[in-house]
Specification:
By secondary structure, this protein is α/β, with parallel strands linked by helices. The chain contains 13 helices and 24 strands. The protein folds into three domains: 200 residues, FAD/NAD(P)-binding domain, CATH 3.50.50.60; 107 residues, FAD/NAD(P)-binding domain (3-Layer(bba) Sandwich); 112 residues, FAD/NAD-linked reductase, C-terminal dimerisation domain (Enolase-like, domain 1), CATH 3.30.390.30. The N and C termini lie far apart (73 Å).
């Protein structure tokens, strides 16, 4: 039997970063991956979809060229070409990851990893005794019995990346961030898109103003929005999907994308051999990401706490540091999130509704249309919203809709971590002219002293 200081199962952002951090600490590390290095994020999620979003940004700019005094003609789009570029980009990042593993002397094992008891991991015909084990096996799309994906007409998010032709029409079941991103992508490619959401608004887990802004924008783009609607059945007939909603409405579409969440990959992982507790389908961990079995840690989608790639990366740092003896707990207070639709959305901290529970909270929005850079760039849609404690002035949350939202939210994430007051943000100097000026302007608006919007 072989031995290793660390064995990591799964090579997504949490897994490969845990492996590299452990190697930085001088540990012997084995990293096990059943499919492709980089996990879901690199191969079927964050990165390939953002590659497609980039192509569509170029397409949108070309279509709007005349508005900027630029002559452009013959603008067209080929989904197959977008996919080819996307796949080249993913392959390049994979090569970079392989290089990093080699340089850090990490034993990369291709195969399915499984716990067999006694802190031993089995993979690709090898058995490895580990001092520390980190589980980072990710998740898979949830299926529904009344709309079971076939990969041709009824799709999940993985299948949608395999499309090479733009469908004439697409219905999307689920108005969360994945469903909304695909709605934005395929609508701009030219498909007639309908979004069906069970809750009363899009993005029900984000601040309500973000969901409302996206719904208005989607409608202007020609996307049909059906909220408060439950799927009754879906069947494929003559190459189209016939969709029946609980209220009796019938919809026909060339493709149906089912995007109703993801489930952790815990099947046949051997959790029972180590007596690892599972609660509501997720692995139970403490504040250091350690499971009920000492020396075995779990990260990312397996633990069900903010299933985001950057959260898994942060959890990897906490877990590895704890294995080396450092006891710094995982903190979720200042975790940002983003939705890469058009317009882009981003959020950190409490929503206005959450902040108002148990305290006197105040929320103010500052529009991008009031700034010079958005006006000069022709991208004025959206706002920066600041949520704070009305008594102490502490920043409780921030929400952004508009161009560069995912980049801008990082400033608020730092402010949240440092527990800054909104007045401190207002006093911070930002470059002019930029979109980032909306941050101190929104803070000033919260304080009642905004310069570039009329006083209330």
């Amino acid at each position: 039997m072989e031995s290793s200081d660390f064995v990591v199962i799964g090579s997504g952002p949490g897994g490969y970063q845990a492996a590299i951090r452990a190697a930085h600490g001088g540990a012997r590390v084995a990293l096990i991956e059943e499919k492709h290095l980089g996990g879901v994020c690199l191969n079927r999620g964050c990165i390939p979809t953002k590659g497609m979003v980039t192509s569509i940004e170029v397409l949108r700019a070309a279509r709007q060229a005349a508005d900027y005094g630029v002559e452009a003609s013959g603008v067209g789009v080929k989904l197959a070409s977008i996919v080819e570029r996307r796949d080249r980009m993913v392959a390049k990042i994979q090569q970079g990851l392989e290089f990093l593993l080699q340089k850090n002397k990490i034993d990369a094992i291709r195969g399915r990893g499984r716990l067999v008891g006694g802190r031993v991991v089995e993979a690709a015909g090898r058995r490895i005794q580990a001092k520390t084990i980190i589980l980072a096996t990710g998740s898979h799309p949830v299926s529904l019995p009344m709309a079971k994906p076939d990969g041709v007409s009824i799709l999940n998010s993985d299948h949608s990346l395999d499309l090479r032709q733009i469908p004439e029409s697409m219905a999307i079941l689920g108005g969360g961030y994945i469903g909304c991103e695909y709605a934005s992508i395929f609508s701009q490619l030219g498909a007639k898109v309908t979004v069906i959401e069970l809750e009363q608004r899009l993005l029900p887990l984000m601040d309500a103003d973000l969901g409302r802004q996206l719904e208005r924008s989607f409608k202007k783009q020609g996307i049909r929005i059906l909220t408060g609607q439950k799927l009754e059945s879906a069947s494929v007939e003559s190459g189209h999907v016939l969709i029946l909603l609980a209220g009796g409405e019938k919809i026909e579409a060339e493709k149906l994308l089912v995007s109703v969440g993801r489930a952790p990959n815990v099947e046949d992982l051997g959790l029972e051999t180590e007596k690892i507790r599972v609660v509501q389908g997720h692995l139970e961990v403490n504040e250091f990401m350690e499971t009920s079995s000492p020396g075995i840690y779990a990260l990312g989608d397996l633990v069900g706490r903010l299933p985001l790639a950057h959260v898994a990366s942060a959890q990897a740092r906490v877990a590895v540091n704890h294995a080396f003896g450092e006891k710094t707990p995982m903190e979720y207070r200042g975790v940002p999130s983003a939705v890469f639709t058009y317009p882009e959305l981003a959020s950190v901290g409490m929503s206005e509704e959450e902040a108002g529970k148990g305290r006197e909270a105040k929320a103010v929005k500052f529009p991008f249309a009031a700034l010079g850079k958005p006006v000069s760039q022709g991208e004025t849609e959206g706002f920066v919203k600041v949520v704070g404690d009305a008594q102490s002035g502490e920043l409780l949350g921030a929400h952004i809709a508009g161009l560069h939202a995912a980049e801008l939210i990082g400033t608020f994430a730092v402010a949240m971590k440092k527990r800054m007051k909104i007045s401190e943000l207002a006093e911070t100097i930002f470059t002019h002219p930029t979109y980032s000026e909306a941050i101190p302007e929104a803070a000033d608006a919260w304080l009642g002293s905004a310069i570039h919007i009329a006083p209330r």
